[in-house]
Amino acid sequence: MAFNRISDLGDLTNKTAVIRVxxxxxxxxxxxxxxTRLQAVKPTVDAVIAAGGKAVLLAHFGRPKGQIVADLxxxxxxxxxAQVLGQDVGxxxxxxxxxxxxxxxxxxxxxxxxIMENTRFFAGEETNDAALAxxxxxxxxxxxxxxxxxxxxxxxxxxxxxxxxxxxxxxxMSAELIALDNALGAPKKPVVAVVGGxxxxxxxxxxxxxxxxxxxxxxxxxxxxxxxxxxxxxxxxSLCEKDLKxxxxxxxxxxxxxxxxIHLPSDVxxxxxxxxxxxxxxxxxxxxxxxxxxxxAGPATVETLxxxxxxxxxxxxxxxxxxxxxxxxxxxxxxxAKAAAALTDDGKLLSVAGGGDTVxxxxxxxxxxxxxxxxxxxxxxxxxxxxxxxxxxxxxxxxG
Length: 400
Ligand code: AMP
Known about the structure:
With 400 residues, the chain is an alpha/beta fold. The chain has helices at 36-50, 77-85, 94-103, 130-137, 171-185, 204-211, 221-230, 245-258, 299-311, 331-345, 356-364, 379-385, 391-394; strands at 16-20, 27-28, 31-32, 54-58, 90-92, 113-116, 142-145, 167-169, 191-195, 216-219, 261-263, 267-271, 280-284, 293-297, 314-318, 350-354, 373-375. Adenosine monophosphate binds next to α7 and β14.
């Protein structure tokens, strides 16, 4: 994988870097509730400042759809970012930006670090408008993309702008790209993928891509029900996409053809109510009765799957093994996450996981910090698992 790094941008002394970051932080009453995404910005901003440059941060916040929506201003993020960076941060309002363009001079002192107002306040952002990208490009001399989570979208601040300035991946983006390449690009084999979650339909392209790439594919969660149904088993009242029966069979056949072993639950935990602590029973996956819902994989499955992980050198994980938000239906997810964490801690497994629910599930299992790499990107992580080229990454390609 070839992409430019910050060091490829040459001397940054007295230069300004326009840096695309992810500032979609959770806000409560105008204050940042979790600064994880702000922490992720720090390495790149520090690197630019250390190289003698200045930083103007571009980011979107929510979905204002090209309109100025006061509640979606990035201004409340300024004090929280200043605290994380340990230095003053300035803010460029949309009005100041427009005035600057009209006057040709900044109407305010240009601090070392500035946040530009929500890129989605501008109509051309989501249409990848070249004219808007040129306006953003005028803010600096070089462009750095440090927002992997937004790289699946070809927007003015993620794609078009990279064509206008010397461009590179930031520190956080680089770390992410390298980790992902180690997991699916050029992984140590055998490779195992865990794909769980609610529906096959939302991860069809992921499954199709993975069967051609990995040695073991563990299918869990509601998705497994569709496969069990396709194999002719009664899945009772379980979440299931019966119309995808043929699709599930095709994926199974493709896996057979490419030497990928699919693992489905051999035992399951069933309940008749979809709620925490519902009366439940563990039974063979072939014995589910009418009215029962499969809400988790059972202990025999977990034992088998832990054995599969132990045989592998690389793990990619997206999606929980069951309805993990409701105890005790978190058992398989927690147990498998712990097994992966222990193998990673022992240096036997390179483990990469991503997606909002998955990160929450691994955190719930106390396994998150042991994983080699956790991606907080949702859509971008899934598109990467689908094997798709992400436009925001492709734009940083150094043709090397
Ligand atoms: P996803 O966003 O596709 O990764 O799906 C995550 C959601 O799938 C979580 O909210 C889980 O509770 C849900 N889920 C996982 N397994 C099951 C299941 N067997 N039945 C119903 N929901 C499930």
